[in-house]
Amino acid sequence: ERRLETTHIESGVHLRLDLGTCFFNPRLQAERQRVCALVRPGERILVLYSGTGVWPVVLAARTRCSEVVGVEMNPSAHAFAMENAEANKVSAAVKLHRADASDLHALQLGQFDRIVAPRPKGDGVEDDSETLGVLADSLLAGGIVHLYGFGFVRAGEAAGLEEVLAGDPGEDLSRLLSLSSGPSPAFTFLRAARCPRSPIGRGGGRAVYRVAVDLQR
Fold first, then answer.
1. Residue 1 confidence (pLDDT) above 70
2. Dihedral through CA 19, CA 32, CA 181, CA 172, nearest 10?
3. Is-above-0.70 flag for pTM?
4. Exposure winner among 52, 59, 184, 206, fewest CB in 10 A?
């Protein structure tokens, strides 16, 4: 079996992974730095779709959070994440679970100050309504969730939810934004921006972007 193992270096941490069995996106490095800068001392953070551990390891190594909990269903990615946490000497602060993000409620992980959900494109992410539906229960009052979706937004940071919706953001992004709209929204909209700024493909004759959506409970 051909292996495509490599080592990614980011923010002073070294992460091993196999590109043949694990999804990994190095283009989110600037986004990880942005989120790290927002973390306050003592925060408890949940990372869904934690992959090979890049988000949990970087957060544990570069912030003063108290704990990072990762959830990943890919057995290869989970194994690399365990190894990467140990190799970067953050295993005491990083707790990793091999499970589907849709099992979040059943895992009974408690509540968090911050949730990061770098949702992958495809592979059933279109059916993650159950996961999205229990995010509020997993977040402390005033907590922040960083969701990553796919759709259409203008360049720069959106001024408000109405501006994003007026631009016809697409089905996936609209599902994320719906968490902060309607008669009794679970979240307050904070921010939406391309992440990264260049498109990742095309759909419906338009450029498709990965979009970071920040919401507050």
1. no
2. -20
3. yes
4. 184
